[in-house]
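Let us work through a complete example step by step.
Step 1: write down the sequence.
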Amino acid sequence: MKNPKAIAMLVLSVVIGLVATVVASGWVAQQGHASSNKVVVAAVDIELGSRLNPQLLKTVDWPSGSVPAGALSDPQVLQDRVVKTSVLRGEPVLEAKLAPMGSSGGLSAVIPEGKRAITVRVNDVIGVAGFALPGNYVDIVVNTQVDGESKGDKQISKIVLEHMLVLAVAQEASRDETKPKVVNAVTLEVTPQQAEKLDLARSVGTLSLVLRNQVDKHGADTTGIMKRQLLAGDLANPVEPVQPAKPRAAALRHKSVQVAAQPPASPKITIEVIKGVQKATVEF
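Step 2: predict the structure and record it as tokens.
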């Protein structure tokens, strides 16, 4: 016969466990809700220079202890704002990634204050085989003629600008692509003074782009290279020919002493002797 008391204890244990589970789940849900904030993130990938609207954004719960600085909670305040950098899907839309209020969309929105954008015509060689992509940095080399040099020695190649940010290639400004793209124009971010220098450089010679490391900001202290230096090769620093060893001073002194010790040769005396019909010559 079954024990009614044991059955009652088993049923009571199950009920208590279910109640504890429900209470714990509610408490955890309340704690999670209380410790999270709403943060606006990108609903899709957003290209730099794009104008924002509610269809491109959504809000998600974000732990209150790790909300990024500059995060926003209301998508409506971002209406018609322009992003100055690409924003990936699910990435928070921060104030630091937005152009100033009132900015129009397009490339002009991503140009910092005090900077300019200038476009340089390139080809597959000048454009580093298409590896000069938006977001990369390049140096500018000009090949031109030097005034005042002798005929046939006027050519010079010189780095005239360094660490220039590539804003766009052709009409593409996306910085998410890594595949090389051969284009006919590259747009660079420059200061007004650099814009003047670059414009003069492309009018007096041929330009080439030199791709550089993203984090390398050190300047290259070069004086350029001219045609005669290029063609000289190793002759620019000729090797001294090997000279025969000179006799030591002591040996020279010894030789001079021996020469001085030899007596000078005496002049010879010739006498002709006649005996009868015979004639002879004697030297002394």
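Step 3: interpret the result. Residues 36-108 form a domain with the Type Iii Antifreeze Protein Isoform Hplc 12 fold (CATH 3.90.1210.10).
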